[in-house]
Amino acid sequence: MKVEATAYGDRKVFSVSAFNRGVATWLQRLPTVWVEGEVTELKRHPRWQSVFFTLKDPNDGSCLGVSMPRGQFDGLRLELADGDRVHAYGRPELYAARGEFRLRALSLERFGLGDHLAALERLKAKLAAEGLFATERKRPLPVWPRAIGLVTGNDAAAKRDVLTGIQVRFPPAHVVVAETYVQGPRAAGAVVDAMRRLAELTDVIVVARGGGSFEDLLPFSDERLVRAIATSPVPVVTAVGHEQDTPLCDLAADVRASTPTAAARLVVPDLSELKERLDRARAGLGRGARRSLELHGQRLAQAHERLRRAPSLLVERRRAALEHAAGRLRTLSPRATLKRGYAIVRSEQEIIRSAEAVEAGTRIDVEVGDGRFDARVE
Questions:
Q1: Which among 235, 233, 227, 185 has a CA at the least distance from the CA of 207?
Q2: Do 267 and 206 contact (CB within 8 A), yes or no?
Q3: For a 10 Å CB count at each end of the chain, is N or C smaller?
Q4: Domain 6-113, CATH among 3.30.43.20, 3.40.710.10, 2.40.50.140, 3.40.50.10310
């Protein structure tokens, strides 16, 4: 399509659309080239016809947008991720509707790990060997934190998500916010300083940052920050990037939250749930108290009945004991012996125990079972 300008006197003026089409047409004349860079901001969707990503020069940070037909990208099966270094073969083009310059890639070849990713892998291995990522050194979060520290960016969505989540779950919570850099070369040192200040004022610290590119999240893999989190005097929760992002600070943190909202759920209890538990506990205590009173009432009634019956039972037992004793006495009584045919012989009120104790003519008194009578010894 021919690009024409509108004449205004001696001046030729192109519309934006005509200008973009003209540049796009001129770019199409350029040859295909190979371009080397690190993959960042990789975006793909099943409904999109193309895959989009950015190539970044690790030396000076220069960036180039790249698009590639989805079928060709999937057919290569490279499983690319942020930080991978590739060689992209394609032709420069201009998306006229938006004036966006990019490389239309026709082929890709993996060129090993990017410089940043390689450095991160070396640092990760070094810190892991020192035990900074060990599970046994991670500490539990306080159940009832007196104060919660929040390290985040100024006016960041992550800050809003954490504060809203805490306010919804536990309104009485006290949060101390430290706003600092969360992107760029000054971010790691700034976050370390903020954590050091908050550790003196709080019981737990949340380090939060929203999603971003691979380069945006690099400060959260800085060795200074990772060591500061591992040696923090209070537990640290990290909520950095999206769920698929895993900066090194997540490995050193006591707890890693997938999102800032999830971090809020981790550091405070749910007030409504606590109230429900208290209501259930109160109801249980009430039922227990009523049951205890009923049991004590039953025991008192039983004790009262035993006390009421005790005197008569005691008298009955004593009567039975007396009758038993009387029976034994009756059995042992001399009269019982006399009724069996025996007699008691006395002389002058003395019991005669031997025939030699009396002489002929002695008067004696004889007692038998049904009476007594006098007799004379012959």
A1: 235
A2: yes
A3: C
A4: 2.40.50.140
Topology, domain 118-271:
Rossmann fold (3.40.50)
Give pLDDT tens digits for 131-171. Answer: 999 999 999 999 999 999 999 998 668 889 999 999 999 99
Report how far residue 106's alpha carbon sits from residue 67's, in angstroms, rounded to the nearest whole number.
9
Q: Residue type for 253, please? A: A
| Spans of all domains in the chain | 6-113, 118-271, 335-376
DSSP secondary structure string for all residues of 276-308 = HHHHHHHHHHHHHHHHHHHHHHHHHHHHHHHHH
DSSP state of 54: E
Cβ atoms of 372 and 366 closer than 8 Å: yes
Q: Measure the CA–CA gap between 65 and 110, rounded to whole angstroms.
A: 17
Kindly report the backbone phi and psi dihedral angles of residue 121, in degrees, each rounded to the nearest multiple of 5, phi listed first.
Answer: -65, -40
In this structure, the strands spanning 100-113 and 84-95 are antiparallel
pLDDT value for 115: 63
Tell me the C-alpha distance between 107 and 26, whole Å: 22
The alpha carbon torsion through 245, 251, 254, 256 (nearest 10 deg) reads 10
Cα angle 108, 114, 120; round to 5: 145
**Does position 188 have pLDDT exceeding 90, yes or no?**
yes
Q: Cα-flanking dihedrals φ and ψ of residue 43, to 5°?
A: -130, 130
pLDDT surpasses 80 at 369: no
364 close to 376: Cβ distance less than 8 angstroms: yes
Tokens of 372: 């007594």
C-alpha distances (whole Å) from 361 to each of 9, 45, 347, 356 are 194, 150, 12, 13
> Tokens standing for 199?
């550790």
Q: Coil, strand, or helix at residue 28?
A: coil
Distance of CA 34 to the CA centre of its chain: 51
Q: Taking the C-alpha atoms of 67, 70, 76 and 80 in order, what is their torsion angle to the nearest 10 degrees?
A: 60
Sign (positive/negative) of CA torsion 343, 348, 353, 357?
negative
Q: Which of 88, 141, 85 is nearest to 112 (CA)?
A: 85
Answer whether 6-113 and 118-271 agree in fold.
Answer: no
